[in-house]
Design brief:
Length: 168
């Protein structure tokens, strides 16, 4: 996989917020027993590295964060990794009480690894779930450029609309 295929936003959290974003996606995986922020094979550092962003969102008090256990194989989706993920989710809820967290599933078998109370309806409108074309899946920015305007105009009847590259 090439790095640009894992990127799904160009803007920092504050700039996304300024664009009206109120739901953020946080993907965690255990690396050496530590919580790392990842997207598939790409490691963006530890959960501790983004504490400033989480504190800022907590201060805002009107955001939702989807927490995903980004494990994609039996080798990575172990009882130990699931237990650690659940501990991290509980710690997130306790540390940031003004953020509404949700999801708590792993990507390997889609099971719930942590049961958050909030269970919104969600529409996902981005290349990896909406596009059968290989090019769009390899270049999600291309998908966003061709589709985001229509997605925004159509909106959603669900609680949350997830999309990549909100500025496009």
């Amino acid at each position: 996989m090439i790095a640009f295929t894992a990127r799904c936003q160009n803007l920092a959290i504050g700039a996304q917020y300024a664009h009206g974003v109120r739901c953020f996606d946080l993907r965690l995986k255990s690396i050496g027993g530590e919580p790392h922020v990842v997207h598939n094979a790409f490691d963006y550092g530890t959960l501790y590295d983004i504490q400033g962003s989480l504190q800022w969102l907590d201060y805002k008090g009107d955001t939702v964060v989807r927490v995903v256990h980004d494990v994609r194989s039996r080798k990575d989706c172990t009882a130990e990794s699931r237990k650690l993920f659940a501990q991290w989710c509980k710690a997130l809820e306790e540390s940031y009480p003004n953020i509404t967290f949700w999801f708590g599933r792993n990507l390997y078998n889609w099971e719930v690894d942590y049961d958050f109370a909030y269970k919104p309806s969600c529409e996902e409108r981005y290349a990896s779930v909406c596009s059968p074309r290989i090019l769009d899946d390899w270049c999600p920015l291309l998908y966003a450029r061709f589709n985001n305007k229509k997605i925004r105009e159509r909106g959603t009847d669900m609680d949350i609309l997830l999309m990549d590259f909100v500025e496009v």
